[in-house]
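Following up on my earlier thread - several people asked me to post the actual chain instead of describing it. Fair enough. Here it is, all 303 residues.
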Amino acid sequence: MITQLQEEILKLKKEKNIGILAHSYQSTDILEIADLKGDSFALSEKAQDLDFDTVIMCGVRFMADTVKILSPEKKVILAAPDATCPMAEQIDPQRVIDYKKEHPDHTVVAYVNTTTELKAVSDVCVTSSSAQKIVERLDAETILFIPDQNLGSYIREKVPTKKVVLWDGYCPVHHQITEEDVQSCKLAHPGCKVLMHPECPGNALRYADVVGSTADIIRYCENTSEDVIIGTEKSVGDYLSLCYPQRNFYLLSKKLICPDMRITTLTDVYKALIGSGGEVIEIEENLRLAARRAIDQMIRLGK
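Reply from S.P.:
Thanks for posting it. Predicted structure:
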């Protein structure tokens, strides 16, 4: 059944010249029919060069928005309109505007996992892999890092020359991980290196052997033959297990399942292709340009 649907999707997307983008956290059946797969911002950047007038995003809303910000000429469809990101929506943009009025000499750094409205009132965006380099290169001595307090705390530790102010945002999935979870998994799988995403809390991260983005974790696994413990969303381990079935990729905790990333199905993709499902992303031009400025700063400082 799934194979037949995949074949129909592959046929339709070729006939209609529609590209499919899939975040690494998507299920394997969706990753298999994608034209591009990877981290959210990498997808947005690479989508600019795809020779498609229309692209379908299999991920969450802020990812589809970022594709539209960078490729306004493309028709961007979010396959599952209900797929959102709680962390992306935790900070009210007005709160940032008020903060900037009170602290005009502070630079607002927004994790790319945010709404378009929040990007638009920030000075620069960062990804989990570029955050340290960008914060180091900023002229400002004080940084407001939003929304993820865990990634921000990790960067504060890595860049002690800057004063990094944190707010109360976090990824609900990664934030659940405790040091007890890590210790327990290490005891169950002795000798295995622990690879963790910096969205996890600092008291858990201190037990990690490698801290990095989804792409960093996958890259590490591609360049080693050892069994490892995966400290990020379960689908990353699932994907790696398919690529390297002779190896073990142990999930750090069964808590590491993102419900929003699991919403999108092959049927959603099919319906988006035939025009009976999905949501076309529309962004008002002034808002898009304001958000684009923060992304352009990220690209410039991240080189």
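The longest strand covers residues 18-23. That should answer part of your original question.
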